[in-house]
Amino acid sequence: MPAQVLSAVVLEAYKKISLVALLLHGEPFTLPKYTPESVSRHLPNIAVGYSELAKAFSTFKAEELDKTVTKYRADFEKVKKKYSVHSKNA
Fold first, then answer.
1. Which H helix or E strand runs over 17?
2. What is the mean pLDDT of each run of 10 residues along the chain (90 residues)?
3. How far is CA 70 from the centre of its chain?
4. How many whole angstroms separate alpha carbon 34 and alpha carbon 25?
5. Which end of the chain has fewer surrounding CB within 10 Å, N or C?
């Protein structure tokens, strides 16, 4: 059953699928049509760094991608640290 409300699990899954879609398909991930409006409306706004990264990636302009990565670097670093194999949280 799809998520009915936005949760931390849904947010983390969205971040990961966004990156995987860019790497695997070379295009941004789109939420399925059956995704509840309460999730689809808020998810891209909460994971704004990942949404912006997908938009920049789809322009095929290195400058745009670099600008976006630089702008949201702190967010990406937090996630990197959180899931690092060498993390003390692991």
1. helix 8-25
2. 78 91 91 89 89 91 93 85 60
3. 15
4. 21
5. N
